[in-house]
Amino acid sequence: MKLSPSEWTVMRVVWDRTEVTARDVLDAVGAETGWAYTTVKTTLDRLVDKGALAVEKHERQGRYRPLLGRSEARRRALAGLVERAFGGSVGGLLRHLVAEERLADGERAALSRLLAQADAEERGPDGAGGPDTAAAPEEGG
Amino acid sequence: MKLSPSEWTVMRVVWDRTEVTARDVLDAVGAETGWAYTTVKTTLDRLVDKGALAVEKHERQGRYRPLLGRSEARRRALAGLVERAFGGSVGGLLRHLVAEERLADGERAALSRLLAQADAEERGPDGAGGPDTAAAPEEGG
DNA sequence: CGTGGACTGCTACATCTGTAGTAGTGTGCC
DNA sequence: GGCACACTACTACAGATGTAGCAGTCCACG
User: How far is CA A51 from the centre of its chain?
Assistant: First the structure.
C-alpha cells in the first residue's frame, strides 16, 4: 500500500490524534492546504478503501482511525525510495546521506549517538517503547 | 521535477551508460519489466519533455543523455520523502533508520565509519564560508 | 525498385491522484 | 413541522502514469 502526498497529509493528522472526523482533519490542515471539506472527505474515504484507515459511524458521523501505523507507512515509503533510487541498498541511501546531503554537525553527532545507542540496545535485548511506536494490525490479504 | 517509478527504471540505465538509445534501454530492462519497445520510447520521451533527458538524432535514431544527474534526482526524491513522511526532518529519517530498520551490524559500522570520514573531510580541506550552525540539535532524544 | 525491418511521432486508454461539486438525509431550532 | 446546517454518498473532471498500438518513413537487401 502506497500513500500519495495528499494521503500523507491526512494520515499525519490521524496519527497525531488516533481518531478524527473529517471536520477535525479540515481544521488541522485547511489553512495550510486550502482544501475544501469534500476534498478531505474524499481523501479519507480513499484511505479507507485502501485499508489505511478504519471508519466507524457515531451519530451518523464518521470517525477515522489508523489501521496502517506511522512507522509501517514510513518503512514502506522508505523501502520504495531505496528500491527505486538506491538500487535497493540501504547502504546506498546512507552513503548518499553522508556524502551528498551535507548533514549539519549537529545531525552527524546525533546520528553517531543514535548508532551507539542502537548498538548497545541490540546487545542487551530489553528494548521496547520508543516515542511513537505504532503497532498496526497487519491486513492479511 | 519528480520521477515516477517507471522513469527511475529508465533513468538508471541512462545513468549507467551516460548515453543510450531506446533499444539499449529495452535490452537492459526488457527481461525484468516485460515492457514493449514503445513503452520504453514513451517513457524516454516523457523524460525529455520534463527536462530530465536530452535527445539528439544520429542517423535518425535518438540518443538520450541525462540532464538530471543521479545525485540530484536522489536528493529530490529523498527530500520529498523526508517532507511527506518525516515532517521535513532528516533527523527523523535518521532516527527511523536506526530505530526501526534494524540495520545490520555491518551497516551500522560502515555508517559510523562514513560519518567519521565525512567529519574529517569537512573539517580538513575547506572550512570557509561554511554553515555557522547555531548549535542545539533538535529534540534531545 | 519493391519489401521488410527498425525507428519515429502520434494516439489511446485505463488507473490513480488532486480537487471539488451536488444531492440526499438526519437533527436541532424556531 | 419546516428549514438551515452538517455530514454523507456519489459523481466529475483534469493531469499524471503505465502501457502499448498504429502508421509513416528511411535504409538495406535482393
Answer: 14
Q: Give how far Cα B127 sits from Cα of A83, B113, B119, B123, B124, Å.
A: 35, 21, 12, 6, 7
Q: How far is A59 from chain B (nearest CA, A)?
A: 33
Q: How far apart are CA B94 and CA B96, in angstroms?
A: 5
Range 52-91, chain B: CB under 7 Å to any strand D atom: 59-60
Report yes or no: A118 and B108 within 8 Å, Cβ to Cβ.
yes
pTM: 0.84
With vertex at residue B79, the alpha carbon angle to CA B76 and CA B82, rounded to the nearest 5 degrees, is: 150
Residue A40: nearest nucleotide (C-alpha to C1'): C19
pLDDT by residue (tens digit) across B1-54? 899 999 999 999 999 999 999 999 999 999 999 999 999 999 999 999 999 999
Other CB atoms within 10 Å distance of the CB of residue A122: 13
Go through A1-30 and write b for each residue having 16 or more CB atoms within 10 A of its CB, e for each that does not.
Answer: eebeebbebbbbbbbeeeebbbebbbebbe
Q: What are phi and psi of B96, to 5 degrees?
A: -60, -45
Residue corresponding to grid cell 552527524: A108
- HEC string of A1-31 equals CCCCHHHHHHHHHHHHHCCECHHHHHHHHHH
Tell me the HSE value of A86 on the side-chain side, using a 13 A CA sphere. Answer: 20
For chain D, which bases have at least one atom within 7 A of a protein Cβ?
A: 6-12, 16-22, 26-27
Confirm if A70 and A15 have CB atoms less than 8 A apart: yes
* pLDDT at residue number A124: 59
